[in-house]
TrEMBL record:
Stretches assigned to the Glycosyltransferase 61 catalytic domain: 474-569
Function: O-linked mannose beta-1,4-N-acetylglucosaminyltransferase that transfers UDP-N-acetyl-D-glucosamine to the 4-position of the mannose to generate N-acetyl-D-glucosamine-beta-1,4-O-D-mannosylprotein. Involved in the biosynthesis of the phosphorylated O-mannosyl trisaccharide (N-acetylgalactosamine-beta-3-N-acetylglucosamine-beta-4-(phosphate-6-)mannose), a carbohydrate structure present in alpha-dystroglycan (DAG1), which is required for binding laminin G-like domain-containing extracellular proteins with high affinity.
Gene Ontology MF annotations: protein O-acetylglucosaminyltransferase activity
Keyword presence, Transferase: yes
Keywords: Endoplasmic reticulum, Glycoprotein, Glycosyltransferase, Membrane, Signal-anchor, Transferase, Transmembrane, Transmembrane helix
PANTHER family attached to this UniProt entry: GLYCOSYLTRANSFERASE, PROTEIN O-LINKED-MANNOSE BETA-1,4-N-ACETYLGLUCOSAMINYLTRANSFERASE 2
Protein name: Protein O-linked-mannose beta-1,4-N-acetylglucosaminyltransferase 2
Biased composition (Basic and acidic residues): 139-172
GO biological process: protein O-linked glycosylation via mannose
Length: 792
């Protein structure tokens, strides 16, 4: 009969084995591997807890015949086990199968154990350090498992008494000695690793640089990374990296070890709460999945990343993702302007001979993280750094190569972006955001100066001539340079520019329009086309433009390079409401831009040419059901919609337009009146002077009590104008009597004054009046300054 009884391992059971295949899915404590019923692997009983055994045998309950049968079976099993563990049967140990541990291989005799113990104990007692203990012990390491696997024998036997284990106190001494020795060994190993790491780091620092592209060199370990971030969410976070790497297989990743610094870096759990998973927006476009970016982490000691080919850039690198690499509006609004201010902030510096530059062009490089290749719109980026631009395709050339950037940033501030494109609702200006047009002007002035053009807004007399001609007055044909532009470089007479389109959304009578404008307004009219004029040529022409005219489209962003007072007239095809598509109107009206904006809409359906059979992306609707086509054509205005494939919008925006010339001329005359007024006001003001500076506190030395000529019983105070150039709207003076009634809840009296003095009568002669003054500037105000006293 079989029964489950505890079975403790003894020395006599060292050769016993149990078929663990009977216990399905059990996990061995020795190997840490799972077994299945087909493995039939043998594990020594002495290595396993009794509770793990599938069954045990109780010989006391068996008959003599059964005992005889068991003896025969045991003998057979013994022969089988001997063949299995003795290696006589090749089939018993498949080549790829791990050999089971044998108790005799991990046990030691009592004498060996005691000898080793006494040797260690003596070495510890005589030693002053773990190193001394190791030396005293003859430098021999303790064999693993000998003390732990000592043979336990029956406590009544003499042999058991002779082999008794040492006392707990002695064991503790030995244990501490072994631990200390192990710590010492680990410390030496860490020091060796540290020295190797320093040597490898120095070797990495000396990687030869070929031009601006460093050579490739093997690295035993990738350089460890650190990350410092500012900002508290995906939209405003900017991160600086010490060592960030890229490979086409792994994408962007940092290399972690215990010395890595992660400052203000959100956890993976925190990032997962955002609908768009990402650490930063690597473009200035907000709330779009395309712009969310993050990195992975790898261990510096991961085998996958040891002894790899590495190209190591030591220049300061700006990681950036272009939003729309073939569109000049997106290039300037979404990429160039935010990048320029980012470089100004994080790079800075100056260049000899170019003190007016806001940063050093030779200390940073731009690395694109997008798949766009070289196009005409890449030209503006080349003005932001003297180093070659980095393209993602270059990083993907060698599949095994890892490219690392020693110092880099990811994420940009959205200082100058003023428009959103309708990804989560209808497009329009970014709500609750103030963009300073002077920050846009800083970027445009930079490009103008890089091209050698005068940054000053130089005008000919033609800005008056154009208005007078538009009003029908007789004017001279040849304009002269005004006095304020004399003796300065001049770029030529003012122009009327028509931004011409040649493929779609065309002005069908643009030549007639140009002739009419030139005839009436006495100015040369020129066509500017992306196909005919480079980025630089367009800037030069914009600096001469008095009027810029164009159909709604990306090229209108070039008006950012125009002089102050320039007129921008945006034209819209039939049924496209100008109030719903306002990126260029918004730009023109930014504080500090000082452009005059007008919108002209084609209100005449007969002057519109649609293209129903064109591709869907270019406004074609032939693919739609006839009922839907009719509905689109009968809709008088494009309804509000999200970006970017609304058929109502595409059908209308790609129409060609014949301009009603007299109607358009009336719009231009109205704009010229505003431009004239704007230029007159600008000539009298300093647009850089700010009124938002708060004055300093008005303190004691700034006060004076006027005594001479003051009537009796009157208070006459004066104080100095703010020394910092602030211009308060008015002042608030607070007074109280020197010996006021303390029971009064508010003993103060308040007076407003627009000047820096206050005269008040009605006091008793000889009374002391305590006063203080605060300055008020619009919605802002200072605190009350020092209190002083005057005797009336």
């Amino acid at each position: 009969m079989y029964q489950r009884t505890p079975l403790l391992p003894t020395s006599s059971s060292s050769d016993s084995v149990v078929d663990v295949g009977l216990k399905l899915g059990r996990r061995s404590e020795n190997t840490g591997k799972d077994f299945d019923a087909d493995s039939k692997r043998k594990v020594p009983v002495s290595h396993r807890d009794a509770s793990q055994l599938p069954f045990t045998l109780s010989l006391s309950r068996l008959s003599s015949r059964s005992v005889l049968v068991l003896i025969v079976v045991a003998f057979s099993v013994g022969l089988w086990a001997a063949r299995l563990f003795g290696g006589s049967s090749p089939a018993a140990h498949p080549v790829n199968a791990p050999s089971p541990p044998i108790l005799s291989q991990v046990q030691s005799s009592g004498e060996d154990w005691r000898k080793k113990y006494e040797e260690l104990l003596n070495s510890v007692k005589d030693a002053k350090s773990p190193a001394d203990a190791e030396a005293n012990a003859g430098g021999k390491e303790k064999e693993k498992g000998k003390s732990n696997d000592a043979v336990y024998k029956d406590s009544d036997s003499e042999e058991s008494k002779n082999d008794a284990a040492p006392s707990l106190d002695d064991k503790q001494v030995v244990k501490e000695a072994i631990l200390n020795k192990e710590k010492d060994r680990q410390m030496k190993e860490l020091m060796k690793q540290s020295n190797d790491s320093v040597a490898k780091h120095k070797e990495a620092e000396e990687i030869p640089v070929v031009g601006e592209r460093p050579g490739v060199a093997p690295m035993a370990l990738l350089p460890a990374s650190s990350v410092w971030c500012t900002g508290d969410n995906l939209n405003n976070r900017v991160c600086k990296f010490r060592n960030i790497c890229y490979n086409e297989k792994y994408q962007w990743f940092i290399v972690r070890n215990n010395a890595s610094v992660l400052s203000n870096v959100p956890t993976y759990k925190q990032l997962s709460k955002d609908a768009r998973f990402g650490l930063v927006e690597i473009s200035s476009v907000q709330d779009h999945p395309y712009t969310a970016w993050s990195y992975s982490e790898v261990s510096q000691f991961a085998p996958e990343f040891k002894n790899r080919k590495v190209r190591y850039f030591k220049d300061f690198t700006i990681l950036f993702k272009r939003f729309h690499g073939s569109n000049i509006m997106h290039t300037l609004h979404d990429d160039i302007m935010p990048l320029w201010h980012h470089i100004r902030r994080y790079v800075g510096g100056s260049m000899r001979g170019f003190d007016h530059f806001d940063f050093n062009l030779q200390q940073h490089r731009i690395q694109f993280t997008d798949d766009y290749e070289v196009a005409e719109t890449i030209r503006p980026f080349q003005y932001l750094s003297d180093m070659n631009l980095g393209f993602l395709s270059e990083l993907n050339d060698d599949k095994e190569l890892i490219t690392c950037f020693r110092d880099a940033t990811a994420g940009v501030k959205k200082l100058t972006t003023w428009y959103q494109y309708g990804f989560s609702g209808p497009q329009g200006p970014i709500q609750n955001k103030f963009v300073n047009g002077l920050h846009v002007r800083m970027v445009s002035d930079y490009f103008v100066s890089r091209l050698g053009l005068p940054v000053e807004d130089l005008y000919s007399e033609s800005h008056d001539i154009m208005l007078r001609a538009g009003r029908g007055e007789k004017v001279p044909i040849d304009a002269k340079i005004t006095d304020n532009a004399e003796k300065k470089e001049y770029v030529g007479p003012d122009l009327i520019l028509i931004l011409s389109r040649t493929r779609n959304r065309m002005i069908s009578n643009e030549w007639q329009l140009a002739e009419a404008l030139e005839k009436r307004f006495k100015h040369r009219t020129m066509f500017v086309r992306n196909e005919d004029h480079s980025f630089e040529e367009q800037i030069a022409l914009m600096r001469r433009a008095k009027v810029v005219i164009g159909m709604h489209g990306s090229i209108l962003i070039m008006a950012m390079f125009c002089r102050k007072g320039t007129i921008l007239i945006e034209m819209y095809p039939y049924a496209v409401p100008s109030d719903n598509y306002t990126p260029y109107r918004t730009m023109a009206k930014l504080h500090g831009m000082h452009l005059v904006y007008r919108a002209w809409e084609n209100k005449h359906p007969e002057n519109s040419i649609s293209h129903e059979d064109w591709p869907e992306a270019l406004g074609g609707i032939a693919h739609l059901p006839l009922e839907e086509q009719k509905k689109i054509k009968d809709t008088p205005t494009v309804p509000p919609h999200q970006c970017c494939v609304d058929p109502y919008w595409l059908f209308r925006i790609y129409q060609d337009t014949m301009v009603d010339i007299p109607e358009f001329e009336g719009v231009l005359v109205d704009a010229l009146n505003e431009s004239s007024t704007m230029l007159e006001n600008l000539s009298k003001t300093n647009i850089l002077e700010t009124n938002s500076i708060l004055p300093p506190l008005i303190t004691g030395p700034m006060f004076s009590c006027v005594g001479e000529g003051r009537p009796k019983g009157s208070l006459w105070l004066r104080w100095d104008e703010p020394w910092n150039g602030a211009k308060p709207d008015h002042y608030l003076v607070r007074t109280r009597l020197d010996k006021a009634d303390e029971t009064v809840e508010d003993p103060y009296t308040y007076y407003n004054t627009n000047t820096t003095e206050l005269f008040v009568t009605g006091f008793k002669e000889g009374t002391g009046v305590i006063f203080s003054v605060k300055s008020i500037c619009g919605d802002e105000e200072t605190a009350f300054g020092d209190e002083a006293i005057c005797t009336v």
